[in-house]
Amino acid sequence: MKSNVRQIGHVSVVDLSGKITIGEGDVALRNAVQEILDAGNQHILLNLEKVSYMDSAGIGELVACYKRAKEKEGSVKLLNPSGKVYDLLSLTKLEEVFDTFKDEKEALVSF
Amino acid sequence: MKSNVRQIGHVSVVDLSGKITIGEGDVALRNAVQEILDAGNQHILLNLEKVSYMDSAGIGELVACYKRAKEKEGSVKLLNPSGKVYDLLSLTKLEEVFDTFKDEKEALVSF
Amino acid sequence: MAAETSVKLVIPSRVRLVDLVHSAAEKIAEIAGFSDDEMLNIGLAVREAVINAIKHGNGEDASKEVEILLEVTGRGLRVRIQDGGAGFDPEGTPDPTAEDNLLQTSGRGLLLIRAFVDDVRFNYKQGRGMEVTLEKALKTG
Amino acid sequence: MAAETSVKLVIPSRVRLVDLVHSAAEKIAEIAGFSDDEMLNIGLAVREAVINAIKHGNGEDASKEVEILLEVTGRGLRVRIQDGGAGFDPEGTPDPTAEDNLLQTSGRGLLLIRAFVDDVRFNYKQGRGMEVTLEKALKTG
Ligand SMILES: Nc1ncnc2c1ncn2[C@@H]1O[C@H](COP(=O)(O)OP(=O)(O)O)[C@@H](O)[C@H]1O
Ligand SMILES: Nc1ncnc2c1ncn2[C@@H]1O[C@H](COP(=O)(O)OP(=O)(O)O)[C@@H](O)[C@H]1O
């Protein structure tokens, strides 16, 4: 998995690509989010458009990121989960946990 | 493997892509060349630019095509074997058998 | 070996080998004639079951093996995952979609497995370990 | 099982399963730390040896198995391919690059295997069949 962070105002947009899976993608996601929190930012938008799939470890890490941001009074929201990733969020009922957007601008103003 | 034939004058240019390997690519190559010969054409330029690799069955089929064209007083020449495919032709000394070109126009006038 | 188109894989209990097994499962699903989307689902289900066998069954002890049998059957695909662990009660695991569990960071593997294949059977073999069997039928018509 | 990072595959003698074994070999080569180009070479060498085991060793008899052991060793990668056949004399095969053989449509598999790995050993096991061992070391420094 690859990640790239764009800071737009007070929101850190993380463009992810690849697979969020056990042992690699999940660790990469954890590190990316931890860096943002360590830098004192806490509003995080994960752009999932180019994430092809996740396994249960990757899904667990998404939740872990959500909780870590929450602890710092921040939030993690999702942009454009596509195909399989969308199915997984709906199957695990995590749609109820994550605010999810199709449009980046709409997502940005929601923070 | 995929193939597409362009008839340029008396030369049939076969654009190949994918892998020429046992059980699939080799059969596809055989069929493509056989169709050309059956149609009464016998000057064949195999464009290997988009062939990623071959195994020994694929290499054997290249030779079989060469022989079949020769039987009909025709010829099989090669265009742009790239990377691994070039290595394989050189390793098997088939460079000595096949006229090989980098430029399509040069190849065409050679027939 | 049961089926003419089948692959048995035996791996030590290491998570780094999961991707390889995952790809093999996708390939067999493709050979069996499943669509791209079903292939992804089957791959994910096998992946989760193999991760469980490595982590929970064998406790990531690399000296213990996981055996995966991928078989194309007359109806579709059958996958057996065998670990060397003490087994568990598959009905006794918490529902990860229950309100109270939504923020758990684990516990979703069995849910995914059950969602992505038609049938999942758990079979504890005395002295051997847990055997999980996944079945997925090809759509006909 | 010898190495902590290893995969054993057992397949019936069917050519349609060669791609799957080929991919597994490439994955293991990647895990072992080989470059993309070396990964391709290793994959091709394993592919050819497995095709030979299926076709020449087992005569494409699907009731006979081919066993492939892929192992990451301290030095690089070791692959063992075992068939159930009668074996053969690897020194007795014609040189496909000899002038007279250039137009043969077969006979290039062993050449490719030998070209793409560092070491190839042939070992006939009485009552079991032919075992071909490929070794490839990681470049160091
Ligand atoms: N092969 C297995 N051997 C022993 N226990 C298992 C096995 N597979 C699953 N389990 C048990 O079932 C629980 C739920 O598994 P799962 O839904 O995959 O979630 P997770 O692996 O994230 O805990 C595991 O925590 C474990 O206790
Ligand atoms: N595993 C094997 N068992 C028996 N014979 C083999 C085996 N591998 C190779 N051979 C013999 O060696 C010959 C040369 O093999 P190879 O160079 O791979 O070319 P090809 O497979 O195209 O004939 C084969 O024709 C066969 O007679």
From TrEMBL, chains A, B:
Annotated Gene3D superfamilies: STAS domain
Q: Where is the STAS domain?
A: 1-111
Question: Which Gene Ontology molecular-function terms are recorded?
Answer: anti-sigma factor antagonist activity
Source organism, top-level taxon: Bacteria
**Matches recorded under InterPro entries:** Anti-sigma_ant, STAS_dom, STAS_dom_sf
Pfam families hit by this protein: STAS
Family from the record: Belongs to the anti-sigma-factor antagonist family.
Q: What is this protein called?
A: Anti-sigma factor antagonist
Q: Which organism is it from?
A: Candidatus Polarisedimenticola svalbardensis
TrEMBL record, chains C, D:
Alphabetically sorted, this entry's keywords are:
ATP-binding, Kinase, Nucleotide-binding, Serine/threonine-protein kinase, Transferase
List the molecular function annotations (GO) for this entry.
ATP binding; protein serine/threonine kinase activity
Is Kinase set as a keyword in this record? Answer: yes
* UniProt cross-references to Pfam families, sorted A to Z: HATPase_c_2 (PF13581)
Which residues span the membrane?
none
Q: Which SUPFAM superfamilies match?
A: ATPase domain of HSP90 chaperone/DNA topoisomerase II/histidine kinase
Q: Where is the Histidine kinase/HSP90-like ATPase domain?
A: 11-135
Key word RNA-binding present:
no
Q: Which residues form the signal peptide?
A: none
Origin superkingdom? Bacteria
- The molecule here is called ATP-binding protein
Taxon lineage: Bacteria, Pseudomonadati, Acidobacteriota, Candidatus Polarisedimenticolia, Candidatus Polarisedimenticolales
